[in-house]
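Quick board copy: two proteins, each given as sequence then tokens.
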Amino acid sequence: MSLRIDRLQTFLQRVGNRPRVLVKITTDGGLEGWSEVYNHGPDLAFPPMLDYLFAQIRGMDASRTSFINQYLLQSSRFPPGAMGLAAIAAIDHALWDIAGKAAGLPVYRLLGGSVRDRVRVYAGLYSAPDLPDLQDQTAALNERNGFTAFKLSPYRSDIHRTRFGLAARELGDYFASVRAGHPDVWEFAFDAHACLWEPRQAVELGAALAPSEPLFLEEPIRPEYIPAWARIRQELAVPLATGESLYSPNEFLTLLTAQGADIIQPDICVVGGLTQMVKIAALAEAHYVPVSPHNPLGPLATAANVHFAAATVNFGILEFKPDPVSWCHDPYEPVDGHLELRPDRPGWGIEIDESALVEDDWVHWQRVVPTKTDGSTAWM
């Protein structure tokens, strides 16, 4: 069967309340590969960007995933950045899906086979509900999917309009009540969303969390200045996690060399795809650092992460956001807090219902930039 890249199509869809571009690549032999784009910039810029990249690879052998990934990286005079790498990742993932289907194997088998039988996940909640509401949510998720790990927000009040010491104290009290109100074996992580840029504030958050032993504290400061990460890791008494805002193996090497994180969280849909994700994981393994991917996305991104995790020795735990979609009826769903591998299904192991893609299901979304009491802007 010929595996020459013949067509690329995009579909404007949604996952939950967020826009999502789906990508389908078809070979001249009729094999299809699917992926989703992480829309983290001007959303409608992705379809024309993907068309532009497709024109460069049309006619190439779809099974040459590494060659095509490198070709697209080198087709840019300057490093492609977040949006360019997200588009490259979408192409990379569609090609991996084709390669697996052509071989009749799940993608993780093409990476050397599985090193684990299933993939542990945590539920992304992204807020800090009052304890009774939180207990209702966690109990339901545990009963339905067996979740025993969850990720919350560390902010109980508007940090840009509240004395920070008070916000940190509220967090310490809140986490103590969360810990006391749940089984002691359950785990809770906290995502600070890179809203801060003062290292001392990150240290205060960590100190507030430490007595109740969080799974990790994620992105407590902005990602740009790596020496600050080295400083706060030395001062924190909790595991420090970051990486969703870093894009290349070089950036992760800089972070790892500085010993700036206990856990790295690259996003497979941002760093240039599975091809680049494997390189980043190897760098982290050499530094004794686990990889717990950023993944608040849909079924296709989760599928790519499952195959990465299955074949990666230093994988830790995967983020999972339960958002059903109309276009995938057989997504990976947690059982006993884990995603099971699908050894009998080639490619990503899921099917896309194209009949659900006939009409666009698009939703506009953009970040709302907060302001401080003096009218200046702040990070969301």
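And the next:
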Amino acid sequence: MHSCRSLCLSAAACVLAFPAVAAGPAQARSPQYVLISFDGAGPLEQWDRSRALADRTGAQFTYFLSCVYLVARENRAGYQPPRQEIGRSNVGFAQTREEAAQRLGQIWSARAEGHEIASHACGHFDGGEWTAAEWRAEFGQFSSILADAWVANGVGSDEPAGWRDFAKDEIVGFRAPYLSTGQGLFDALAQDGFAYDASTVSRGPAMPEGTTVPRFALPMIPEGPSARPVIAMDYNLFVRHSGGIERDDRDGVFEERALSAFRAALDEQMTGDRVPLQIGLHFTLMNGGAYWRALERFAEDACAQPDIRCVSYRTYMTETAGDG
């Protein structure tokens, strides 16, 4: 189990270099932060796609990893989720040890590129009613599965130097599956020394709250012709647009609506209080990949602006430590 986590770790902050712009009032203001994250971090092609987006834009991302993606199906009996049968997961496992090993390589490469790896627990269960002890058991399994993953998947000789220190000390953030929280979770996060939680929802962009374990809340943002608020996450857009039933976005309407919502939410903060804007996606493509395409277009524009910092949650906390 983790007993201590530090924000001062080796993942480098991204350095943005863009053409000079005319001086103006906005340059004297604090930067606008944009925090983009991915839940689950399973499919290998989405690892490649997200890292390519970061390379194009200079952005850092936070990957909230589900640890079952590091467990081959043949080894699933080694995972014991709270209140569930041994070897059960709501999101499956790696199909093979080879697949899990490739994912380990993606994680280590992303870390080297300055991205943050954080926890999404393991089997993607609704833990809203779990006790602190049950959550800590889940956290413990995440830690041990992550630490032992190279050996467990038959590639122990390829384990990078520093991997076990990374697994022990660098997983400082958490997001609950289904954004389902409870007092047991909050107690467990504090007891296990997490630096932040990103599981809650707010009516709009909001500053993190709390001191022991600061809580970041995904914001509700106006969306669509009637500007009805929706959580700034692909799944919620998916439910809004197609009732959660997969549809190909042939006319581009879903993509354009998502992009417009992201841009409007950013514009409001750029001309307002500059509260960090958080956007969450999954590695699962929904409605033909409409929300990934919208995010890519958003990031390619926003993250190229010199007064916008597209960073991980951990980097944001490091850069703003002591503010306010």
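Board note added afterward: The first helix runs from residue 44 to 57.
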